[in-house]
Amino acid sequence: MPIWPNKNSSGELLRKCSDELYEWQRTNLPKENLFVLHDGPPYANGTLHLGHALNKILKDIVGRFQVLSGRRLSYIPGWDCHGLPIELKALQPRTESPREKGKAKGRAAYTAAASAAAEKGKTMDAGEVRSLARKLAEKTVAEQMAEFRSWGVMGDWGSHWKTMDKDYEISQLRVFKEMLKRGLIYRRFKPVFWSPSSGTALAEAELEYNNQHRSKAAFVAFPIRATASPGLGRKLDGVTMRAAIWTTTPWTIPANKAIAVNTEMEYCVVEIEGHGKLLVASERAGELGKAMNEEARVVIDRIMGQDLVGSQYSHPLLPEDAPLQPVLPADFVKADSGTGLVHCAPGHGMDDYLLCQAHGIQPFSPLDNNGRFTEDALPGYGIKGLEVLSAGTEKILQILTESNALLALQPAFMHKYPYDWRTKRPIIVRATAQWFADVGVIKNDSVDSLKNVEFVPPAGRSRLTSYVNSRSEWCISRQRAWGAPIPALYDVETNEPLLTEESVEHIIGILQVEGTDAWWADGVPEEAWVPEPIRVTGKRYVRGKETMDVWFDSGTSWTTLRNHTGQREGKPLADLYLEGSDQHRGWFQSSLLTSVATAADLNVAKAPFGMVVTHGFCLDEKGKKMSKSIGNAMVPADVIQPKGKDIGGIDALRLWVASCDYTKDVSIGSTILRGVNKNLRKLRVTLRFLLGNLEDWDGKEVDYSDLAKTDRYALAQLYQVNKATAELYRNLHFNRVVIQIIMTYTSTDLSAFYLDVAKDPLYSDPMDSQRRRGIQTVMYYILQNYLSMLTPIVPLLTQEVWSHATTLVTRGAAGPTQLGWYKPVEAWNDENLIEEFKHINVIHSLVRLGIEKARVEQGVKVNLEASAVLITPEGSKARGFLEKYGEYIISGTDELPHIFIVSEVLLEKELPTSPTWQYVERTKLLGDDCTVIVRRALRNKCPRCWVYAAENPDEICDRCQNTVTSLPKKDYESPPA
């Protein structure tokens, strides 16, 4: 329920404080003082959640403060529109979307629907897939944009960008071309994360880890056939033994190419009944015996790993005439698990790959895109077509058992395992030919470019640096239809790729005219994609069907800034990137790498951002992740349209965001929102009070020197809160702005003091009295300052206030932002006055204490029933101090009664007697004794102002008599014509 009637519709208010304000500042603020806020694009595949609200509203608060501060804001929203999630959702029947099924059946339904859609996509025409995905993305962008705008987020919505826009994709391809020109793009056959459920390679950022994944872990024996160390040969003395390895992925055994040992580790040979002699690390011998449920008796000990290097073994599942394979040294071999001998399949593990590459051993990965064995995997055993994560594993274990190579099996070994974050299914590591970006070459420059970047919170610097330092290359190719194409051509006969600066530029020229959908269509003849110099050689080429990693898509979004604002001399393209903390490994990193990789001079490469701000994730009030299945999930609509008596609305949502310590995970729930709505109601009531008392203000400001001390004290408080708030805004501490500053100022300085003190003269003094006009002047200043502090956070509320304010208050501006950040007068910063009021407040607290006692014991209902007597030594500092505020003894003014909100304050030399009751409190004031007496007011209650200042009952006091006399005569009181 609004506290005042709506003078304007919420839609009109929203338009004025958002769209119209953005256009106004773009026209009226200097382009030389530009603040560029770059949008980390939300993903266009679903409805918005509270994380979106947290992100977009934080950005909007930052942008609005910059505009208030006189800087022109450039904020062009964008959307990430490519990638598998959109493709999968587009391929699902409407009734089988993960969200719909998830409401009823949770994660299992999501997984089933996504997997079914992935399978469907593998059989569909690429053009059809792209058409469906594009329509879904367009629809989602429109829906999300409407909701973002409904939250009061202002920006250049008309110029919004999407990663699927042709111009965007062309810019992205030019970044790719520049990286290719610098030798940073290459194709290599090596292990990558591969999702059988999605049928594509994945980046690390596209994984999530299941800590309770269960695998069938196996101990497998590999016969040692030869040793390279003469000393070891003598020690073994012809002993026949097998190397015991342990693996959680038995399906990789067919791809084994080596066994790794640690040269510093000690090994031994144990004998186990039924399995003969086994080579194992000495520290793991007991664990091996326990796993095999047999005693592991050591027969040969003290074999150093260095002596095992160069030994050769045979694969237990390959023919006897198959080449022997080597034992290699590796630092990654540890004795904290397994057997101390590591089975190496260079086609299925990065450590294995790097080790084998160093020894000239090529990766072998006999799997297809669906994670099934190919005919190259153990020919003759009948495993072709089996899924490696299910039936394939079972078959391999069966073959190992029949070959007497399986030593032991742990059928439900629980460990951490990577999953596809979209389909929620396990992934595999698989060697395939993929396109990579060389990160190692630009790693140092990328880290160096962060030196001048500010991070909030500061830990973001080390986190982003760590992610960059931990990688040497970036797999940028994906095997899906929905995305920006990798412009590579492949020789029909050799399958060798053609990817040169010239070929890419030729392809970009076609796509610039036809659009990227043409890459998957037949409209352009195949030979037309080949540059003329290559075409005349007679070689035939076909287009590749790979798309770019979506992080490469969004990571090149800084090109939109270059197109809109141009290069900023000596400055980064964007002043601010603000996203969730997960983007250190995602968008922040991909933006940094692509920007540095294409910089004109790598020696002076700069990050595309000047500041990186991260926020946490949304949790319930108990700190738990929100989930529909457990019933603790909330969406923005739950805040905007609450059940019960809460005010709600867009302002409630925005005030919640501003109240959060966003640098950590943030909580939300009914209890938290009750507090937010309580604060919102307090703000509205305070604003209404200020507006109501400025309704008859004549716009003439009373000179500062003519203001009462309480008025000047209020301005000193205003000055301090203004400066503190501006500093917190600049440092992005919004929760401190709201909780520590604005709400404290509202409750303590305004409601509990100045506005309370001001009520009596406002309602009882003559309309044109200096005291009343002075208070209105101060209220005008307070309102201007108050709106400055609140406008970035609750712009709809402040625009509503503006719509109810008189033109003398608004000064003709369309909204409070147009007047800029309120700047108080330096003279108001009166430290002496602040210090004086500390002493006054000590006396005031004792007066309140006495009144509270009187409420309990004497039935006093209102403060005005009481008066106060202050007793200090004659000629003391305390006496002189109080006389400055109690000048009414000499001149008839009455500052102290207004401050204490009592009917009378007397300065006496000694303790008076009271005809009824009195309460005595004692303190020190400026080092002198001070006695505070609260007693019943001695005069009668004035029926007009309620102050006990009337000489006789039912008569108004002298002050009110003067006020009434000064009022203009009513028409009916005028003499007849």
UniProtKB/TrEMBL annotation:
Catalytic class of the enzyme: ligase
Keyword Transit peptide: no
Subcellular location: Mitochondrion
Catalytic function, reaction form: tRNA(Ile) + L-isoleucine + ATP = L-isoleucyl-tRNA(Ile) + AMP + diphosphate
GO MF annotation list: aminoacyl-tRNA deacylase activity; ATP binding; isoleucine-tRNA ligase activity; tRNA binding
Residue span(s) of domain Methionyl/Valyl/Leucyl/Isoleucyl-tRNA synthetase anticodon-binding: 711-869
Record keywords: Aminoacyl-tRNA synthetase, ATP-binding, Ligase, Nucleotide-binding, Protein biosynthesis
Superkingdom in the source lineage: Eukaryota
Principal location listed in the UniProt entry: mitochondrion
Gene3D superfamilies xref list: 1.10.730.20, HUPs (3.40.50.620), Ile-tRNA synthetase CP2 domain-like (1.10.10.830), Valyl/Leucyl/Isoleucyl-tRNA synthetase, editing domain (3.90.740.10)
Residues annotated as domain Aminoacyl-tRNA synthetase class Ia: 20-668
Entry EC no(s): 6.1.1.5
PANTHER family: ISOLEUCINE--TRNA LIGASE, MITOCHONDRIAL (PTHR42765:SF1), SOLEUCYL-TRNA SYNTHETASE (PTHR42765)
The family this protein is said to belong to: Belongs to the class-I aminoacyl-tRNA synthetase family.
The protein, known as: Isoleucine--tRNA ligase, mitochondrial
